[in-house]
Amino acid sequence: MSEILSREPSELRQELRVRRLAYSDLPAVIAIERRSFPTPWSLAMFVLELSKPSGICLAASAGDELLGYVVCSRYDQVWHLMNIAVAPEARGTGVAGQLMRRLIDEGRGALPFTLEVRVSNHGAIGMYERFGFCSAGVRPRYYHDNGEDALIMWLD
Known about the structure:
By secondary structure, this protein is of the alpha+beta class. Helices cover 31% and strands 31% of the residues. A hairpin with a 2-residue loop joins β2 (56-62) and β3. The model has no long low-confidence stretch (mean pLDDT 92).
């Protein structure tokens, strides 16, 4: 474990910096993505999202270490939270919350947010609810790796 992650969560929160995700972050993003999801995004998917001028792509880092990221696309009348992940060893330290706060601050306005989340991902669902997201239905068999349903959530 890195020296940064061996610190107390409150210490880490003080050092945590949320900034724009850069192409140079992608090797670290891919490493976190592969450790976080059974069907990780490809490098090409991240490059595509970063190339969209209307999107919001953020990174959370402490020192030189990338700890998490969020990717949100803007569509005609909605922000769609596409991907959020935190390095497994940094989970529970407030990284995801910091990313969500900044994302909502940057995207807040006339457009609502939406996302899909695995129905089994109770930790993520709880975090989204703390930010004001509400359940709006289910997409049956949304996840191709195991056929799990997705909970659809909205924040107006």
